Amino acid sequence: MTARAQPRMLNEVKKNPRVSARDLKKSLAHANISVDESTIRKTLNKNGVHGRTPRRKPLLSRKNIAARLKFAKEHLDVPQHDWQNILWTDE
């Protein structure tokens, strides 16, 4: 990693924290700088930028809240043994 490529890469990561190492490699290739993806990851880790994705929060708009309430009211009288046949995502 050249001294010229490192600040360029860090600026790009600061602009868009979700950019991947593959995308950074492509953008550096446009500037005639060839760097491997693992080198990019190591350089970012040394500079305190780690490859963690932020937690996704569920989108609870008024529409989604109303849809959940409608589902709950419709399935209020469903017997317990019917719910045992459903595969839940947290199991």
From TrEMBL:
GO MF annotation terms: DNA binding
GO BP terms in the entry: DNA integration; DNA transposition
Ranges of biased composition (kind: Basic and acidic residues): 11-22
Domain Transposase Tc1-like intervals: 8-77
Region of interest (Disordered), residue spans: 1-22
A Pfam family recorded for this sequence: HTH_Tnp_Tc3_2
Name the UniProt record assigns to this protein: Transposase Tc1-like domain-containing protein
